[in-house]
């Protein structure tokens, strides 16, 4: 080897060694930046996670409180408890049981709902009277109600008594609200016990992602965590140290991320305290687990140093006259690939826009959503935002291809409504629903609502003109910030749910002409008639009773969609529960799905009626018929004979004693058998049947109300009118007028 060659090699080696130094600097900088970035990402994620958990838990507790408050302000119940006559009044006690059963149905995760009567030392349940309240409620909750002076409170139900110096483990939670009264001692408490699954679902829905990530600490200092989290904490944190550390953090009111040392280990902690419930939600992450993956960065840096040193050596060796051409070809190839990539990005932009608009509507607004929306050309500053929701019922049952085509036409029409003042961005949500955001450029407050209302009217006019579909439109309130769009979208969906009580309208604007909900008078008489006709196996009369139920329900001028949903849920609960009392009918196996979930998915009264009449009633009547065939005998003959006599002689003077003599059965035995088989007392059945016959005469004849009352064997027409209104929800004259108006004719008589 010549001296010249040796010199060249020395220079090459020196260059390679010098090249390693900046690589090491860059590698260490990258490691530090990656570590800091990971910690910040975890902090941001924990902040969002804790906020979600807090909001979901507060909403769960608010829902329980709202459901209980609907029944607390019952003056009749207060009077009965004050007089001590509730337990001896069979009718009022039955009403309380029905209310408790409805609350158990309507409150998610409700294990049981009770009425605790301190004076009598009993619990009223949906199934009867429990004379051992301390055993049923647990000693701690029982003592809390006896000694607590607050109107309402939440109580921790511990899995086991906490050891001294350690923390209690929450198994589930309970809620108690005292009935209002002016007495020093409480008249009673409504008590709601939530299942253990309630808190678990809140944490699971929040998608914590790691078994050791989540703790919920009650105001009493007790801790809730799932089994895996408890196991992890038990293995790494001594209970005494965790108890002391939790007490210190709760007293300090920590609400931010911090790095703490507990049990000889470092933990990244984020805590958030709810001002509503007093609960504190904490995320604890072992710092060594968090940063373990970053250690890989150091190994990568080492490999990169070796690789770059080798590259430096190869680069020097390859610095020949043809190197420029090789580099040029590489640059040309990269430019070509970049052009192809830009074209593909342009082709996928509509899908990207739909994805980020959907997240904007449904999720808490964050910098990632805002950044991507701006990157897609959606302006977010100096603007106002209004969310909209459209439903086209006739597209729900279309095939995917036809629904996609017609939804595409609707989307094209919506985009044609864009102006310089108002532009919209829309997404398709299923076959029959479209959601979107209207972005308004105007600064005039008076023009904001005007623009929303007129935009909706213009859309309906265009759709009707082009005969695309029959749609309903819900519009939320206009918001000043992009971060509030998800709230506006919730309002748009709530406005659209008003279709349930106002099916003729097509445009619903949240807050505009919104009904003021007042206590609803539930149509119990119509409900009893539905149940009775189903037990008799008469689907047509059950369907007619259902129509009467709906007419009475919707006749209330202030009813809103939540009250209507609750009323239909109570009706469904009565059908599935009361209908099968004392029988062997498999109530829970009648439907291949959850009936309450199906009820929630129906959007209009006609859909609910169609489902009840066309599916549920059919299944129930078929099952009733099969059961009746299996147990046919003397008792069935007696009931059929009694009902047949009533139906043929309803216009005469009838009594239970007369029919007992006719059938040869003791009056008391006949009364009990009739109530068990029909679901109504003999008197209630006779009154209801006469009212149904009176309805037929009101619809088909011009007879005067007084003559119809006499035909129904009422000596006093005022008594007849009062009974008719109690059963049908309206007077005979109002019924006749409504029927003839619905039929398109003039009221007669």
Automatic annotation (TrEMBL):
Coiled-coil intervals, chain numbering: none
User: Which SUPFAM superfamilies would you find in this protein's record?
Assistant: Homeodomain-like (SSF46689)
The keyword DNA-binding appears for this protein: yes
SMART domains hit by this protein: HTH_ARAC
- The residues covered by the HTH araC/xylS-type domain are 640-738
Q: Which Pfam families match?
A: GGDEF_2 (PF17853), HTH_18 (PF12833)
Specify whether Signal is a keyword of the entry.
Answer: no
Name it.
Answer: AraC family transcriptional regulator
Source organism of this protein record: Paenibacillus oceani
């Amino acid at each position: 080897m010549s001296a010249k060659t040796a010199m060249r090699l020395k220079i090459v080696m020196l260059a390679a060694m010098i090249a390693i130094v900046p690589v090491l600097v860059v590698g260490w900088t990258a490691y530090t930046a990656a570590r800091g970035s990971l910690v910040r990402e975890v902090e941001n994620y924990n902040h969002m996670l804790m906020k979600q958990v807090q909001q979901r838990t507060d909403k769960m507790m608010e829902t329980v409180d709202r459901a209980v408050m609907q029944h607390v302000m019952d003056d009749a119940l207060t009077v009965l408890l004050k007089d001590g006559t509730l337990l001896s009044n069979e009718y009022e006690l039955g009403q309380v049981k029905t209310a408790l059963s409805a609350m158990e149905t309507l409150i998610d995760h409700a294990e049981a709902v009770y009425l605790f009567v301190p004076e009598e030392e009993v619990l009223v349940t949906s199934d009867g009277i429990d004379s051992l309240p301390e055993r049923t409620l647990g000693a701690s909750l029982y003592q809390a109600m006896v000694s607590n002076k607050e109107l309402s409170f939440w109580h921790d139900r511990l899995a086991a008594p906490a050891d001294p110096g350690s923390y209690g483990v929450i198994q589930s939670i309970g809620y108690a609200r005292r009935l209002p009264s002016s007495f020093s001692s409480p008249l009673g408490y409504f008590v709601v016990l939530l299942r253990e699954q309630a808190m678990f679902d809140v944490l699971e829905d929040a998608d914590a992602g790691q078994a050791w990530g989540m703790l919920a600490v009650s105001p009493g200092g007790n801790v809730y965590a799932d089994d895996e989290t408890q196991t992890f904490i038990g293995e790494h944190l001594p209970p005494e140290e965790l108890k002391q550390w939790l007490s210190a953090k709760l007293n300090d009111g920590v609400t931010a991320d911090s790095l703490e040392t507990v049990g000889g280990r470092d933990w990244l902690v984020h805590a958030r305290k709810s001002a509503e419930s007093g609960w504190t939600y904490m995320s604890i992450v072992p710092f060594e687990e968090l940063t373990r993956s970053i250690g890989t960065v150091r190994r990568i840096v080492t490999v990169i140093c070796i690789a770059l040193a080798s590259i430096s050596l190869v680069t020097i060796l390859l610095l020949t006259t043809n190197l420029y051409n090789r580099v040029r070809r590489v640059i040309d190839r990269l430019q070509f690939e970049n052009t192809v990539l830009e074209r593909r990005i342009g082709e996928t932009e509509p899908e990207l826009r739909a994805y980020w608009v959907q997240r904007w509507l449904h999720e808490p607004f964050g910098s990632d959503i805002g950044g991507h929306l701006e990157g897609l050309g959606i302006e977010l500053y100096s603007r106002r935002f209004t969310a909209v929701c459209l439903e086209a019922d006739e597209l729900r049952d279309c095939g995917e291809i036809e629904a996609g085509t017609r939804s595409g036409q609707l989307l094209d029409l919506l985009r044609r409504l864009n102006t310089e003042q108002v532009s919209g961005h829309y997404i398709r949500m299923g076959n029959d629903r479209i959601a979107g955001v209207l972005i308004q450029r105007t600064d005039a407050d008076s023009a904001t609502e005007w623009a929303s209302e007129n935009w909706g009217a213009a859309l309906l006019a265009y759709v009707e003109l082009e005969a695309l579909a029959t749609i309903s439109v819900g519009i939320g309130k206009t918001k000043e910030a992009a971060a509030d769009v998800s709230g506006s979208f919730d309002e748009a969906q709530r406005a659209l749910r008003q279709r349930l009580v106002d099916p003729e309208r097509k445009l619903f604007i949240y807050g505009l002409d919104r009904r003021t909900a007042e206590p609803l008078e539930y149509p119990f008489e119509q409900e009893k008639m539905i149940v009775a006709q189903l037990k008799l196996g008469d689907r047509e009369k059950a369907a007619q009773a259902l129509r009467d139920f709906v007419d009475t329900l919707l006749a209330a001028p202030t009813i809103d969609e939540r009250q209507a949903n609750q009323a239909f849920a109570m009706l469904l609960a009565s059908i599935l529960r009361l209908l099968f009392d004392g029988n062997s009918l498999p109530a829970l196996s009648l439907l291949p799905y959850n009936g309450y979930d199906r009820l929630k998915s129906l959007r209009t009264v006609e859909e609910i009626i169609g489902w009840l009449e066309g599916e549920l009633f059919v299944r129930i009547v078929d099952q009733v018929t099969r059961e009746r065939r299996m147990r046919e005998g003397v008792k069935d003959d007696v009931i059929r004979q009694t009902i047949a006599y009533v139906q043929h002689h309803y216009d005469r003077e009838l009594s239970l004693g007369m029919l007992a003599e006719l059938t040869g059965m003791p009056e008391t035995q006949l009364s009990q058998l009739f109530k068990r088989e029909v679901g109504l007392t003999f008197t209630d059945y006779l009154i209801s049947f006469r009212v149904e016959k009176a309805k037929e005469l009101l619809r088909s004849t011009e007879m005067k109300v007084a003559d119809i009352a006499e035909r129904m064997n009422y000596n006093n027409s005022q008594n007849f009118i009062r009974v008719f209104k109690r059963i049908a929800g309206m007077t005979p004259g109002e019924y006749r007028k409504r029927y003839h108006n619905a039929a398109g004719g003039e009221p007669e008589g």
